[in-house]
Amino acid sequence: MPSRRDVLRWGLGAGALLGALPGISFAGAGGSARFVVVILRGALDGLTAVPPYGDDAYAPARGPLAIARPGAAKGALELDGFFGLHPSLEGLHERWLARELLVVHATASPYRERSHFDGQNVLESGGEHPSGAASGWLNRALAALPASAGQGLALGQNVPLILRGSAPVGSWAPSALPEVEPELVSRLRDLYSNDATLSARLDEATRIGALADEDGADAGAQKKMARGGNVERLKAIAETAGRMLAATDGPRVAVMDAGGWDTHAGEGGADGQLATRLRALDQVLGALRGGLADAWSRSAVLVCTEFGRTVEVNGTRGTDHGTGAAALVVGGAVAGGRVYADWPGLSSRARYEGRDLRPTTDLRAIAKGLLADHLHVPSRALADVFPGSERIPAASGLVRA
Amino acid sequence: MTAELDAAIAVSRFGYGARPGELAAASSDPRGWLLAQLDRRAPPPAELAGLAPGSQVLAQFLAAREEQREARKTAARADSGDPVQKVANRVREVLLPHYLAQAAARTKAALATTQSFRERLVQFWTNHFAVSVDKPICLGTAGALENEVIRPHVCGRFADMLLAVETHPAMITYLDNQQSVGPDSDLGERANRRRRFGAAPKAKTGLNENLAREILELHTLGVDGGYTQADVTRFAAVITGWSIGGGQGRLASGTPGTFQFRGNLHQPGAQTVLGRRYAEGGFEQGQAVLRDLAAHPSTAHHLAVKLARHFVADDPPPALVETLAHAYRSSDGDLPTVYAALVHWDGAWAPTPRKFKTPAEFVYSSLRAFGVVPAEQKALLAGFELLGQRHYSPGSPAGWPDRAQDWDGADALMKRIEWSVALADRVGESHPATATLDAALGPLASEHTRTALSRAASGSQALSLLLMSPEFQRR
Question: B443 exposed, middle or buried (CB, 10 Å; 0-12, 13-18, 19+)?
């Protein structure tokens, strides 16, 4: 017998939601929304990606790493007269001009130490502290949607913590090897008849594989994708993922992740190591948008990282682990063209523990706002999605009405 | 029967899976078969002969990088072709053969060895002290770290391994310590003076916390081991000057590519780390901190959890963890004593496998089941790449993850199937499936799997089913 909570979730929940959205059918609105989370592992330096050039303390603290003001040589791309975008992020700047990019700054998960691995655990599990949690917040959000709402897709061979849990999810990465004969798959299905985990994985793999085939990633194309250079490969994967998401029966949420943001030494400013990575990110997001095509207008992409980096440059022209970070929300469904930040300032006194950008926006508020208003996750369910976040209200108005 | 079952567990759970005939060899005394591999003075595998020392590879990298810098300057003056790109390619050209040779040697050793428990322990520690080749400077030295400081200490004391690893050029450069400068060191003082006179210092000077933090968090105490941000910063000051020879500018002196303690970068004075005061003593100050970290009960616990997770279960039984931690504490961190405690833990011999193989474990055990060591380098390394575990490239200092949830994605399973088909096609009819199954899994093979193999459409399909069977995917 279902518990009261299950009834609320599956029965009344959907009904109440439909009631709250008069005149719009579920499949036509919330049901077709697409949500992608991009995790930048290693702690993106938000002060380089989104330089607060209007803060008097910025250029002195950053020295050789500081991004110049808009208009100067290799200067930032103008946002709002105070913040700019890194000059490598040209595609995202176009989205800004189209009012499809919302920039979040001085944001952080509830984690306040400086371990990458614990930081990523909190970012993905959605809890308040690092833990051995078996499920991630995005999976719990999926689980709170009607079962017909579609599944989650991890771009990669395996599923990262953020998307693990009870809601069925698949994973996909291009392959350099020939496709497996259906006859062998059916024999394996028999072989796994006593093994719940392997048989579930096999079913997910065949379902997602079929979707990838339909969307143009046949074996030949995949082989090229799997063997291409790094950025080209990521772009091809993102574009295919966009097409899979755009399919009517495609997944509603997807996760991509990329490492290499841990810039302790030789970080660079307008040019250099981080600039190269930011350019690649910009291109990969562009490819995702290309793949989504018409579905871009129904999409929101959240780009986030486990924590920020120190305000001051360290002894090796890089930055060490910090706290407050920047996040980006981009997509045709996003109410963009603005910076969402309660800026604490960069002076020594304003910093968190004297060294880091002080976080003033809880990243969970942003995630909850997107889940509630974009994916239409029932507000009751958000307490399960982010346990312990009751005092962090969902940010409103992140997506277009 | 029990001896046969224990032999199969010894070889597949503790080792890298059975080669033809190996189950029989282990069955007279499965525990003894494991313990015999813990000889402190065993020579390195023959497959490693001829690899260049890491210091030599690093010296080549430093020289090629210097060439690249010069090319950049020339390119800035005269716009002629793209010499920068050419030299960047040359850095890769110089280092890639070393990387490939190290990866191939490691694979061959793991495929051919009759001591695969020991080989697994080597790779366990390499992963504990992870250095990833996606950082270009480490492309030719990550494998050298394994061969030069992990192997000699794998059956020694943890404290010795720790000091050897943290002073290996691969670790120093992976975590950026070579340029970390004490603010009050000779070099820091000089920079301060320049600043006071209004001139910009030649180069930014100061601490880099990266190595200090990862030693505390990943290599010794563990993230909950009881240190603070202040401990990280002070420990970073203690190990300023732990550098390498043969770079440019302030790193020019010393034998290129070797560890170099640079007194002029070292932060002078006493430091307090974890509540204990360490008097100034140059290089010795950092050695003293490492000795104390190795002896810390949090380190014993952290290492015990990782070993128990690797060999027994993703969420290891607390009693096993405490047994291993106790063995560590009471033996002054003697690793063979800890391994022996693991082998003698009865729960480690439960017939039901609880570990899902990582891609590397799957590739090793598959090739070992056929007794095959591909001669061609490409064939030798392809499986690791295709299944997502390229040698020496965990991508982060935390190393490859060690739980099923990190490896059992739907797509990952499909990639294993694809690879198993390719491998089975290659080894083909020369390996009768049932005999191969008996030799690889012995009594661990289920009736269900035996039936599936006997009904397969072809010999090669039967071999794919063997490799993809639930009992072969786990250990």
Answer: middle
Residue whose pair of structure tokens reads 């091809």 in the numeric block: A236
Residue A181 CB: number of other CB atoms within 10 A?
Answer: 14
Amino acid identity for residue B209 in this structure: E
pTM over 0.95: no
Q: Which fold has domain A34-385?
A: Alkaline Phosphatase, subunit A (3.40.720)
Q: How far is B34 from chain A (nearest CA, A)?
A: 30
Neighbour-count burial for A43-75, b at 16+ CB within 10 Å, e otherwise: bbbbbbbbbbbebebbbebbeebbbbebeeeeb
In a domain, B87, yes or no: yes
> Collapsing DSSP states into helix, strand and coil, what is residue B256?
strand
Contact B208 A183 (CB under 8 A): no
Q: Which of B204, B229, B406 sits opposite A63 (nearest CB)?
A: B204
Parts of chain A with a pLDDT under 70 = 1-31, 148-150, 216, 227-229
Residue type, A98: A
d(CA B211, CA B178): 10
User: What ipTM does the predicted assembly reach?
Assistant: 0.92
Cβ neighbors of B391 (< 8 A, separation 6 or more) are: B102, B103, B106, B107, B143, B360, B381, B384
Do B335 and B219 lie in a common domain? yes
Identify which of B61, B260, B173, B200 has the alpha carbon closest to the alpha carbon of residue A316.
Answer: B173
* Four-residue CA torsion sign, B169, B174, B177, B180: positive
- A362 Cα to chain B: minimum distance (Å): 22
